[in-house]
Write a structure and sequence with these properties.
single chain; alpha/beta; Rossmann fold; Hect, E3 ligase catalytic domain fold; 4-stranded mixed beta sheet; 14% strand
Length: 567
C-alpha cells in the first residue's frame, strides 16, 4: 500500500472478542490498532463506522448485531474498505470465511487484516487469506480436541467435568487441582423424596407441585430461565439419571453447531468412547427404590403404548425438537396473573383448551381458569379485527403508505446519483491510463489495468441505464383504499400460509409479541398493544418508544361459560 492510498475513501472497522471473561477493552484495543494502521495511508474510520461484537464466538456468523450491521452496510454500498485486526476476528470457520470473502469481493470492498499482513488488493492475497482461514479453522478444532482430552482425563480420575446433577456439589482437590464430586447433604432428602413418591404411585406433575409447595429450589433455579420452579419434565429427568445409584458416564454425547446458525444439537457417541465409572460413595438411591421406579415406567409404557420418556425425545438433523404447534395462538398467550405461557391441554380435536403453564406444571400460580382453543381463536381474531378497523388505525396506515410512496423516488434518485459518481471516477482513471500509454510508460502493465477499468465502466453504464429506465417507467401502485384493504383483511392474510407463518404474522402485530389473558370473575379479558406498523412491513417490529401504534391497551372480553369454564 502507498501513502494516501485510502484518502477520501469510506472505511469501516470491525472488532470482536469471544469470551465474557475477557476485558471489554479488547474491542477498544483492536479498533485503535486498526485506526493506527490506516491513518498513514490517508484512511479515516469514523465512530459511526465502527462495528463490534462482544463475548461472541467466531465459530459462526450468526452471532449478534455487529457483523450483521457491517454486512448490511456493505451491501448498501456504504463502505469501500474494511479493516480488522486479523481474519480470526471475522470468523474461525472456513466455510463462513469463504462466503464472507466472496461477498466482499462481489461488493468490491477492500479487506485489510492488520496482524495477518493481508490486503485484498495485493497480489496473492486470495491464497494467503485461504491459508489463514484453514489455520484458524484448525486452531478451533485443536482447542476443542485439547479440551475434550483434558475433560476425559478428569473423568477417568473421578473428578468433576462440569455441571453436576441436583443433589451433588463439588470441592477443590489440592492434590489434583481438580474438583471432587460430593453428595449435597442439603438436597439429598429431596432426591430421595422424588424417587420414593414416584415409586409409591404419585404422578410427575403432583411431585413437582409438592416440591414447589415445600419451597425446594429446582436445579439451576437461579439461572437465566424465564420460569422458575419444578416441572414434571424436571422430575422425570431426575428419575432417569443413573448417577443417583452411583453409575457415572462421561462423553456420552457430542455437541455440534448446525451450519449457518448458533444452535447446537447433541449426538450420541459410540459406546466405545463412553467413559463409565461406578462410585458407591456417590449413591443416593437404593437399588430397591431404583428398580421400583423402573418397574413403574415399564408398566406405564405397556399400559399407554409409549416408550420411556428418556428415549422418546428426538431431534431432526437440523436440531428441531418435536413438531410445531398446530394452534394459531400457541406461543402468543400469557397468563395475566403470573406472566407464564398459556399452553394447550386436553383431549382430542375440538376439546383442546389453554391453561396457565405454571398452574398446570408447577402449581405456583393460582389461576386455574381455562379457555377452549377454538373459542379463544374466534374471540381474539374478532378483537384484533375490530382494533385494526378503528379510524385512528386506518388514518395511520394511509399516512405511512403516502410516506412510503414518497421514499420510492428518493431512494431511486440516490442510487442513480451514486452510480453516476462511480462512473465518472472510472472514466477519469481511463483517461489518465490512456494518456500514460500514449506516453509509453509501462505499456504492458497499464494495458492490463486499462482493460480492468474498461470492464468496470461497461458494468456501471449498464447499471446506470437500468436505473434510469426504471425511474422513467410509470409506477403501478395501489390506491390508498386498495392498500388499506390488503393490510386489514385478516382472513385473507391468514388463509395464505401455514399455521406457523400465520402465527408469526400475528406476532408482528403485537408489542412484545404476546397477548395477556387476565382472569376476572370467571372470564378472561385479553390485553395487547397492537403495532399497526407490523402489517405494513410484513413482520418488522418496533419498540414502544417509537410510537408506531395508535391503538393500544384494548381489552376484548371472553366468556368462559360456553366451554365448561373452570378446571
Amino acid at each position: 500500500m502507498h501513502r494516501d492510498d485510502l484518502k477520501g475513501k469510506r472505511g469501516a472497522a470491525y472488532a470482536r472478542y469471544s469470551s465474557d471473561k475477557q476485558s471489554d477493552l479488547s474491542v477498544d484495543d483492536q479498533i485503535r490498532r486498526c485506526r493506527d494502521h490506516v491513518r498513514p495511508l490517508g484512511g479515516v474510520v469514523n465512530d459511526e463506522a465502527l462495528h463490534f461484537d462482544r463475548a461472541e464466538s467466531g465459530s459462526s456468523l450468526q452471532r449478534g448485531g455487529g457483523i450483521e450491521r457491517l454486512l448490511r452496510a456493505i451491501r448498501n454500498g456504504e463502505y469501500e474498505y474494511v479493516v480488522i485486526e486479523s481474519l480470526s476476528r471475522l470468523t474461525r470457520d472456513f466455510a463462513d470465511g469463504a462466503v464472507l470473502l466472496r461477498e466482499l469481493d462481489y461488493q468490491r470492498v477492500r479487506l485489510i487484516a492488520v496482524a495477518d499482513g493481508i490486503d485484498s488488493v495485493s497480489h496473492g492475497s486470495q491464497l494467503l487469506m485461504g491459508l489463514k482461514l484453514v489455520l484458524n479453522n484448525q486452531y478451533s478444532r485443536d482447542q476443542s480436541d485439547q479440551t475434550r482430552r483434558g475433560m476425559k482425563g478428569r473423568a477417568l480420575a473421578g473428578l468433576s467435568t462440569g455441571l453436576l446433577p441436583f443433589g451433588y456439589c463439588s470441592e477443590r482437590d489440592p492434590a489434583s487441582d481438580g474438583k471432587l464430586v460430593l453428595i449435597d447433604e442439603d438436597r439429598r432428602p429431596a432426591v430421595i423424596l422424588i424417587f420414593e413418591k414416584y415409586a409409591g404411585g404419585l404422578g410427575l406433575a403432583a411431585i413437582a407441585a409438592l416440591l414447589n409447595r415445600e419451597g425446594i429450589r429446582p436445579p439451576r433455579g437461579n439461572g437465566r430461565r424465564k420460569r422458575q420452579g419444578w416441572t414434571a419434565s424436571g422430575v422425570r429427568a431426575i428419575l432417569h439419571n443413573e448417577k443417583y445409584v452411583g453409575i457415572w458416564k462421561y462423553n456420552q454425547r457430542e455437541y455440534v453447531k448446525v451450519p449457518g446458525s448458533k444452535r447446537r444439537i447433541s449426538r450420541l457417541r459410540p459406546e466405545s468412547e463412553v467413559v463409565v465409572g461406578d462410585y458407591p460413595d456417590r449413591r443416593i438411591v437404593s437399588d430397591e427404590v431404583w428398580q421400583a421406579v423402573r418397574d413403574r415406567f415399564e408398566s406405564n409404557r405397556k399400559r399407554y403404548g409409549k416408550a420411556p420418556a428418556a428415549k422418546t425425545k428426538s431431534r431432526s438433523s437440523l436440531g428441531r425438537a418435536g413438531r410445531p404447534s398446530q394452534y394459531l395462538f400457541s406461543g402468543l398467550l400469557e397468563c395475566g396473573a403470573c406472566g407464564a405461557p398459556m399452553t394447550i391441554h386436553g383431549g382430542g380435536q375440538g376439546r383442546r383448551y389453554y391453561r396457565c403453564d405454571d398452574n398446570a406444571k408447577r402449581g405456583t400460580c393460582e389461576n386455574r381458569l381455562s379457555v377452549r382453543e377454538r373459542d379463544a381463536r374466534e374471540w381474539l381474531l374478532s378483537g384484533l379485527r375490530d382494533t385494526l378497523h378503528e379510524p385512528t388505525a386506518v388514518a395511520y396506515v394511509r399516512k405511512e403508505i403516502a410516506k412510503a410512496l414518497a421514499n420510492v423516488s428518493q431512494s431511486g434518485g440516490r442510487r442513480t446519483e451514486q452510480k453516476r459518481r462511480e462512473l465518472a471516477a472510472v472514466e477519469g482513471r481511463l483517461d489518465n491510463l490512456a494518456e500514460a500509454i500514449a506516453d509509453g510508460t509501462a505499456v504492458d502493465v497499464l494495458r492490463d489495468k486499462l482493460r480492468t477499468e474498461d470492464r468496470l465502466a461497461r458494468e456501471l453504464r449498464v447499471d446506470l441505464r437500468d436505473l434510469e429506465e426504471a425511474a422513467a417507467a410509470p409506477i403501478q401502485l395501489p390506491t390508498n383504499e386498495e392498500a388499506v384493504r390488503a393490510v386489514f383483511d385478516l382472513e385473507a392474510r391468514l388463509s395464505e400460509g401455514t399455521v406457523e407463518a400465520n402465527r408469526e404474522a400475528l406476532r408482528s402485530l403485537l408489542l412484545g409479541g404476546t397477548i395477556r389473558l387476565h382472569p376476572e370473575d370467571g372470564i378472561y379479558v385479553a390485553h395487547a398493544d397492537v403495532l399497526i406498523f407490523g402489517l405494513l412491513v410484513g413482520g418488522s417490529r418496533r419498540s414502544a418508544t417509537e410510537k408506531t401504534t395508535p391503538a393500544s391497551g384494548r381489552g376484548e372480553r371472553y366468556s368462559n361459560s360456553s366451554c365448561g369454564g373452570r378446571i
